[in-house]
Write a structure and sequence with these properties.
The protein is mainly alpha-helical and 154 residues long. It contains seven helices and two strands.
């Protein structure tokens, strides 16, 4: 298997982010943590992931500060995995992925588990970046200002 290139020093925020949470298991672990999973067995039952892969992903998410390992809240000998502030900041990413999937990966009328506001039970409003003027931001409205050698190559 090919070695994965470390993107932690890349000048691109997307590359750094994908380096941390860009594989399906990491994102699904974070999703399950938002849904209340805290213990190894809960993640494993939900995801059906091999124990060694789950161990690896949980360790990596703890190492980068997305999750923290803590003693079990019930006083047992187990440990739990809890979202840190850094991990909780991924909530808009999970919501955006969910909303994209709802819009593009389900046939009309095909059922799916919707995300709703806890208090009202109403659907979550669609997320969309906006310009400073308040209109929906389109790809042609934005540009990445390159830095360093990449900028000189243009």
């Amino acid at each position: 298997m090919a070695q994965r290139r470390d993107m932690s020093g890349d000048a691109c925020p997307v590359a750094r982010t994908v380096d941390v949470v860009g594989d399906r298991w990491s994102l699904l672990i974070v999703r399950d943590a938002f849904d209340g999973a805290r213990r190894f067995g809960e993640f494993q039952r939900s995801l059906g992931i091999a124990r060694n892969m789950l161990t690896d992903r949980l360790r990596m998410l703890v190492d980068v500060g997305v999750l923290a390992a803590a003693p079990a809240s019930d006083g047992s000998a187990y440990q739990e995995y809890v979202l840190t502030d850094k991990g909780r900041a991924l909530f808009p990413v999970i919501v955006a992925l969910r909303q994209w999937g709802e819009a593009h990966l389900f046939a009309p009328g095909e059922p799916y588990a919707p995300m709703v506001e806890r208090r009202s039970g109403r659907p979550i409003v669609s997320m969309a970046p906006r310009t400073h003027g308040g209109r929906p931001l389109q790809p042609e409205d934005a540009v990445v200002e390159k830095i360093g050698p990449e900028k000189d190559a243009d």
